[in-house]
Design goal:
The protein is an alpha/beta fold. It has three domains: 121 residues, Response regulator (Rossmann fold), CATH 3.40.50; 123 residues, 3-Layer(aba) Sandwich (Rossmann fold), CATH 3.40.50.2300; 169 residues, Orthogonal Bundle (Hypothetical protein af1432), CATH 1.10.3210.10. It is built from 19 helices and ten strands. The strands form two sheets. A five-stranded parallel β-sheet has the order 2-1-3-4-5, sandwiched between helices. The chain has a five-stranded parallel β-sheet with strand order 7-6-8-9-10, with helices on both faces. It starts with a strand and ends in a 9-residue tail after the last helix. The structure holds fe (ii) ion.
Length: 462
């Protein structure tokens, strides 16, 4: 919604103008003095300022003069809405770049027509003409001013200053200028933030072919040779601006779609993490001896993966795989899982089946086939004496070898009904003993490094 600031010392005028403009769909802010108006301009993005002339303390002309002197707000569009008919005021208003002068009282239609005209003007594409010849400024204005907003500057330095404050939609640039020529100006403008892709059309003489080729390579959009035919030039500029509009639109669309996709992708990831967490929580809840086991195994596996140099995605996957390594216990009866004494052979065989059962459950998740690997083979041993398949060495998937050592480490560093967590030195010794027999020695070394870094023995069930 377009925002209009109305400055008038008479509150009745403010009320009636606000009423008319709001009725036409504009957002209206009011101020009762020039200074208050300037303060609002500095804080708010105002599309048009409607200014009274006769006001106490600081009149409208003085207010406009101050606005034009303040770089931060100097380019605001201003129209006077006043009872003053002084020719001097009118000429001052024009001198300070006012866009119109409406006499109060005015009919609502008259006000709205003038406001609309100025705001449409603001929608026109901005063309910057850089040329050291004042005659060319006049000519460009004659050709383009009806269709575009045209700003003319006389040197490369002025052009660079201009684009730092407002980015034009197109630049028409003379190649032959003293001090900084068109090529140097073009290169300098490209280095200004946000100005690398402004379409630039060069005005060139008949014999500048080598320069043309060089400038094309640097990214020039088009060349117009002197003397130019206004109608053809107009058509070329129109096409370039249309193309730019289309490109901007496509860029915006691609950015919008990309951010939508990223957001929905993140949403799916969050949902997946939450499901994994809920499921692993339900496994741990079933087993009264292993409070928080899945979480800790996942944390240790993640740290090992990081130390092994896995990338962010791989680390995240290993974490989730480890979270669900015991998911098969869901299918084992609570009596066996929570049996306080020693398991008999038959019960032990049933417990061992949690690996295959976990694999079957997780294999159903076809979008993430690796998820089943940890559950399936985390009880395999490096020497081939583990279960369920007796795989050995590198035949055991790496993910399962990681989860295996994290799982065993947590079993030793957790409290059991019959014992507290083992002392850290004992746990370390067991890992050393298992290197090459129970554990992959390379992965076990990462575990040992983690133990050695954990001087307070924080990595255990609390
Ligand atoms: Fe297990």
């Amino acid at each position: 919604m377009r925002k209009i600031l109305v400055v008038d010392d008479e509150s009745m005028n403010l009320i009636s103008t606000k009423f008319i403009l709001e009725g036409a769909g504009y957002e209206v802010i009011t101020a009762e003095s020039g200074q208050e108006g300037i303060d609002i301009l500095k804080k708010d993005d105002i599309d048009l300022l409607l200014l009274d002339v006769e006001m106490p303390v600081m009149n409208g002309i003085k207010t406009l003069e101050m606005i034009r002197e303040d770089e931060a707000i100097s380019d605001v569009k201003v129209m006077f809405l006043t009872a003053s008919t002084s020719k001097e005021d009118m000429s001052d208003a024009v001198r300070y770049g006012a866009k119109g002068f409406i006499k109060k009282p005015c009919l609502p239609d008259e006000l709205l027509k003038s406001v609309k005209k100025i705001l449409v003007e603001r929608d026109k594409a901005l063309v910057l003409v850089v040329d050291d010849e004042p005659m060319n400024h006049m000519m460009m204005k004659m050709v383009f001013e009806e269709t575009y907003r045209v700003n003319c500057v006389s040197s490369g330095a002025e052009a660079i200053d201009f684009v730092k404050n407002s980015v034009p939609d197109l630049i028409i640039l003379d190649i032959n200028m003293p001090e900084m020529d068109g090529k140097e100006t073009f290169e300098n403008i490209k280095n200004v933030e946000g100005c690398a892709d402004i379409p630039t059309v060069f005005i060139t003489a008949e014999d500048d072919e080598d320069t043309e080729l060089e400038l094309f390579k640097l990214g020039a959009m088009e060349f117009i040779r002197k003397p130019f035919i206004p109608e053809i030039m107009k058509e070329r500029i129109r096409r370039i601006l249309e193309l730019k509009k289309l490109q901007d639109f496509l860029n915006d669309e691609v950015n919008r779609k990309t951010s939508d996709l990223v957001e929905s992708n993140n949403k799916v990831k969050r949902l997946f993490d939450q499901l994994v967490s809920a499921l692993s929580g339900s496994i741990d809840a079933k087993d009264s001896y292993t409070n928080g086991h899945s979480n800790r195994v996942a944390e240790y596996s993640k740290e090992i993966a990081i130390r092994m140099g896995k990338n962010e995605e791989e680390v995240r996957n290993i974490y989730n795989i480890a979270m669900l390594h015991d998911v098969g216990k869901i299918g084992i009866s609570n009596d066996i899982i929570n049996k306080p004494g020693k398991l008999d052979d038959e019960e032990y065989e049933i417990i061992k089946s949690h690996t295959v059962m976990g694999w079957k459950i997780l294999s159903e998740i076809s979008e993430f086939p690796e998820l089943a690997i940890g559950a399936h083979w985390h009880h395999e041993r490096y020497d081939g004496k583990g279960y369920p398949d007796g795989l050995a060495g590198e035949d055991i998937p790496e993910i399962a070898r990681i989860v295996c050592i994290a799982d065993c480490y947590d079993a030793m560093s957790s409290n059991r009904s019959y014992r507290d967590a083992l002392p850290q030195a004992v746990v370390r010794e067991e890992i050393v003993k298992g290197m090459g027999s129970q554990f992959d020695p390379v992965i076990a070394q990462h575990m040992l490094d983690m133990i050695d870094a954990d001087t307070n023995y924080d990595m255990r069930e609390k």
